[in-house]
Input
Amino acid sequence: MSSTSPVAAGLSAARATTVKTVRTTANLSLRSGPSTKHRRLTVLKKGTIVVSTGKKSGQWWRVKAAGKTGWASSKYLKTTTKTTAPKTVYRYLTKYTILQKSKSTSSTAVTGIQRRTRVQYLGGSGAWRQVKVNTKTGYVPAASLSDKNPAPAYRWAKSSIAGYATIRAGAKKTVVIPKNTKVEWFRSTSGWSYVKSTAGRGWVKTAGLSTKPATTPKAKTYRWATNKVNVRTGIGTKHRSLGTINAWNKVEYLATRSGWSNVKTSRGTGWIKNTYLSTHDRYDVAVYGTLRHSQSAYFLIKGKTSSERRTTVVGHNLYLRRDKTWWSYMVPGARTGKVVVERMKFKPSLHTATLRNMDSWERFDPKKPLDNQNYNRKLVTDASGAKVWAYVASKKMAAYMKKSGIPVASGDYLKRY
Output
């Protein structure tokens, strides 16, 4: 089965149409014959439209109206004529086409028409169609026309390329197209392509275009080893070790399967159990109370740091328990609030174990409901803009401290009294 489009079928463009309408000019009897002697079939009200059957007898016309056919006096019938202007018909070019003066490729070329240009369709038959584009009229092959606008064809600039008015040497530069820019393609010839970008149109070297956009390299994902760990050739400890990497070595993450991650490391590409990997690098820990240098709990981190630096954490306030004034809490507060802290950088080989011991000391367990604990270990920002861990009052404890705690105006635990 095949279908034929209006273009291929050679249908002519729409022409002006003339419509004649006959109406009664008064209430008029419709009779069974062409005289008043004949039986009245019905009375047609003034303004009723009647249809002539073409049969006449003197001044009487045989007409159809009100579901009946009969005779009516033409003295009471008026014919009006209405001419409707033809509807403009358009077509689209499916490829670059020369508008010819007559139905032949050897005739004079009127102009060139780009792909997807809308033209006024004037009609025609056979292999040619007459069209009008702007003010110019001529003929194009029927196969070059479509009643629907073809989908745009796109190209992408491989690098920054210049577009020119023509493909002749010394042609004027019309546009510069940046690398990876998407352009609409119209046609190619002699190693050049005519394209349109948001900056303008022009001829560019076809070799500088790609039919596909440049693929953006997928951003790499990383993990960090939380301990000195083996890199295995397969999933499970039964597989051979490629060697070990030190705690907090950065590795490139590739995939996860059965609780293990496939990673690229300094020892090669292999597998590490997920429990030995972190999705982020180690953060320093900001301490502000009894964990500060020379305070009662400092023993937990003594000798385990590679650096200790005094700084502040903004957007928080320091509170003391009213019944135990040595017990302090960092509570989220106004932007102007600040807490004096000591930023502890743990030695890489001791970072994970020390952080675990601090969690235990502060009785923080991320697996339990956070609101039911005294402290939550959260990432906060210090005065330098760095992200650091800090043991912050839980939501419930923060509310209690604001209501019943003792605020430390200086934000410095060492100056709390």
User: Anything to note?
Assistant: Residues 1-11 have pLDDT under 50 and may be disordered. The CA atoms of residues 287 and 341 lie 5 Å apart.
